[in-house]
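EI: anyone free to look at a 288-residue chain?
SC: sure, send it
EI:
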Amino acid sequence: MDRTALWMARVAWLLLPVTVGAAASRAGSDTSTAIHAVAAVELWALWAVGLVAVLVPTTASLTVLRLLAPAPVLVAAVALVAHPDLIGVLGLVVGAVVVVAVFRPGLGRLFCQGSAYGDEARYPLRPPGALVLGPLPLLWLFMAATVAGGPLLLAAQQWAPGVVLTLIAALALAVLPRRFHLLSRRFLVFVPAGLVVHDHLVLAETALFRWVEVRSVERALAGTTALDLTGGALGAALEVTLDGEQTVVRATGRARTPVVVATPAFLCRPTLLDDALAEAASRRAARR
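SC: here you go
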C-alpha cells in the first residue's frame, strides 16, 4: 500500500494554510471585512475537516478527502491570477501535490483497507468511465460553487441570490456526498473463504465465490466473453474463471431491477490490478 502518497498528502495538507491560505488572503486583501472573514472561515473549515480525514484512513475519510482535495489547487489558481507572486506559485504547487497524492490508487487502497474487517484485503474498483469523463467533475464544481458562493454572497449583502445559493448548497451537501461515497465503497475483496465483488452500481447483491468455485484469476485478454461487471470502467480488467456456472444478481436499468445471471467467468477492474492478481495467487496457494 502506498504510504509514501499518504505522507505526501499529510505534509502537503499541513502546509496549505501557509501557502494556499496565505495566497488567498493576499488576493482578497481588497475585499470587504465581511467577505474576507467568511472566506477565511470557509478555508479554515475545509482545512480542519481535511486534516481529520487525512489522519484517519477509512473509506469515509477517503470520500471526504477526495471531495476536498481539488479545492485548494483551484483556490490557489484563482489567487495567483488575481495576485501573481511567489507565495501564489507555492500554493499552486502544494495544492497540486495534494491532488496527486490523494488520488493515487495506492492511497485509495490504504484508506479502504482501514475499514476492512478481520483477514480481508480490499481492492477498490475503478469508477465507470462515463462518470469520470462527465458528471463527476461537473457535480463537484456545482457543489463547490454553491457551498463557497452562497455565504460569500451573503457577506457581500447580496441577500436574494445569497439565500437561494445557500439553500441550494444545503441541498447539494445533503445529497451529493452520499452519491460520491458510493464510489468509494466498490471493492474486490479477498477473504480466507474466497473472493467477493462488492459493487452496488453493477450488482443488486454482493457476489461471493468460494475458492473451490474459482478456477483461475488472471488478467483479461482481448476478446474475452466473460460477463462484464466493470460498469464501463476504463483500463485493464481482471478475469475470474469459475468452476462451472455460478449466479450473480445484476442491477439493471434506472430502476435497478435485480436480474439473476449464470456465468462461467466475469470481469472486474480493480485500480491496482497487479497487486490484486498477486493477492489472489497468495490466497489460493494458502488454501492448497
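EI: The first strand starts at residue 121 and ends at 124.
SC: 👍
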